[in-house]
Amino acid sequence: MSDSSSSKQSAFDRRAFMAGAAGSVLVPITARAAAEEARAPAAQDPALPVDVTLRVNGKDKRLHVDARTTVLDALRDHLKLTGSKKGCDHGQCGACTVLIDDRRVVSCLTLALAAEGQEITTIEGLATDDRLHPMQQAFIDNDAFQCGYCTPGQIMSAIACVKEGHAKSEADIREYMSGNICRCAAYPNIVAAVKQAAPEIMKG
Amino acid sequence: MRPFSYQRATDPDTAVQALSAAAAANNPLTQARAQPLAGGTTLIDLMKLDVMRPAALVDINPLARDWSAIEPKGDGVRLGALAKMSDVAAHDEIQRNYPVIANSLKLAASAQLRNMATLGGNVMQRTRCSYFRDVSYENCNKRNPGSGCAAMDGVNRMHAVLGVSDQCIATYPGDFAQALIALDAIVEITGKSGARSLPFAQLHKTPGNTPEIETTLQPGELISAFSISGRWPRSVYLKARDRQSYEFALSSAAVALDVQDGMIRDARVALGGVATVPWRAREAEALLKGQKFDDGLAQRVADAAFADAKGRRQNSFKIALGKRVVARALQQAVTMEI
Q1: Cβ distance A134 to A200 under 8 Å?
Q2: Secondary structure letter of residue A13 according to DSSP
Q3: Do B3 and A109 touch (CB under 8 A)?
Q4: Is the CB of B246 less than 8 angstroms away from the CB of A178?
Q5: CATH number of the domain that B245 lies in?
């Protein structure tokens, strides 16, 4: 698990290579005024792209995208934040789980346009400097994955699960983590990881 | 997904106007050109599947400022239609005095979806019938009126046994609606000609010959709140399903009782997972009133609840299962400590 997504990408990047010429205009901005201007669009021509400003991991990102773009596609295809995974793309598997205004949601069913003005936190936004988030560390310590595809969603969901107060027993953890499917069935280890990280996260 | 125009509505009038303007006369609501976007957990899913094809989305989330309160009303409670499922499920007052509501919400979907989905959107969610959700099947009277029903003699294990017609046997998939119909909730609606309200039991329509018409809401109308009178601390929501969590009901029961000195003074029984609409079992309720509870009574009530049930090749098991769910829910409601 990388501690930073964009700043430490290696010169030889598989995704950058595969992405080729695809992509959109991506101008990170910090000016508040520009963000406000992009808010509250009137009904737009469906054929034309729209301006959207998403606040991702504490930074405003200005995008020019099709109105159909979900938060998940905005993150992966336009912001190159590929930690959030596309599993089912129908809200059933939880691989795309991110926090929006500190609540866990499935980003595949959230339109980017509808998420404007809200704070999006992805797996890439968890680690600070060289230190993993306690939940990331707990997943490593407990071997809470095999293939790893569901892991970013599991970790985002697990952090919210703890903060909601739903990690007080193994039964609670299982119930409140049921929206994250693990095809490798690493469930016992995921439960152990959530239990390990919970006290540290609650301590703040 | 087909292209659509997106508009954010910051007040109810703008929302109603935008939805009404795009609504063609006689269109069933489900096929209206403009659809309101709240949590999006049904709408965006069905748009990706090409089942719903709105040309315009009206984002009504900004209305949550006024439409998401959970507040006392008279001797009961009023729930804003844009309150999130998770917030209502976790609310102290709801857990204490309306456990049937709290549990119907808590046992639905996943934590992520409950954080997104609103109460109003939840009761308007569409069926999970596989033939409805898969546009490669032409025969779906609900999606494609007059085309037939692939579920009748197809894979129909999940389908309804109550409220069915020879045009459609698609199950109403929700949980919360059973709590609302059991507690005689009132739906508050905002539309072009102002506000109106109606009993929740009059919101959904059985399929009959027009399965594409699912509710009595008109295009341009929005649910703004649900209100419930009285308190129902002795109430349960029991849900039987293929998995223990994150699964739709095979059969569920919402039960609310008023018991004084061992005598049942009032009883409410609603069924989920087995009917085409949120289903109130009034004949079954009548058997409970004025009686003392025992297992024999529970059995008679359960039998009455499914007296008119019609099973098909793969879903007949729901009749036996449903009766057991009703009997057990009654037993839980009678014995729960309040």
Answers
A1: yes
A2: -
A3: no
A4: yes
A5: 3.30.390.50
Q: Is residue B204 part of a domain?
A: no
pTM of the model: 0.92
- Taking contacts as CB-CB distances below 8 angstroms, the residues of chain A near B245 are 174-175, 178
> Using CA atoms, how far apart are residues A64 and A101, in angstroms rounded to an integer?
23
Q: DSSP letter for A77, please.
A: I
Measure in Å the smallest separation between the Cα of A164 and chain B Cα atoms. 10
Q: Do B245 and A178 touch (CB under 8 A)?
A: yes
Q: Find the CATH number of the domain harbouring B32.
A: 3.30.43.10
> Structural domain tally of chain B?
2
- Show me where the domains of chain A are located: 14-125, 134-203
The domain over range A134-203 is classified in CATH as 1.10.150.120 = yes
What is the DSSP code string of A51-111? EEEEEETTEEEEEEE-TT-BHHHIIIIIS--TTS--SSSSSSS-TTEEEETTEEEEGGGSB
Last residue of a domain, one of B62, B80, B103: B62
Please report whether residue B109 resides in a domain. Answer: no
Task: Please check whether residue B59 touches A, CB under 8 A.
Answer: yes
Nearest CA in chain A to B9: A40
Q: What are phi and psi of B326, to 5 degrees?
A: -60, -50
What pLDDT tens digit does each residue of chain B (338 aa) get?
A: 999 999 999 999 999 999 987 666 556 788 889 999 999 999 999 999 999 999 999 999 999 999 999 999 999 999 999 999 999 999 999 999 999 999 999 999 999 999 999 999 999 999 999 999 999 999 999 999 999 999 999 999 999 999 999 999 999 999 999 999 999 999 999 999 899 999 999 999 999 999 999 999 988 999 999 999 999 999 999 999 999 999 999 999 999 999 999 999 999 999 999 999 999 999 999 999 999 999 999 999 999 999 999 999 999 999 999 999 999 999 999 999 99
Q: Closest Cα of chain A to B300: distance in Å?
A: 34
Give the domain extent around B293: 235-335
Token representation of residue A183: 């095809």
Domain A14-125 CATH assignment equals 3.10.20.30: yes
Q: Is the distance from CB of B39 to CB of B91 less than 8 angstroms?
A: no
ipTM of the complex: 0.96
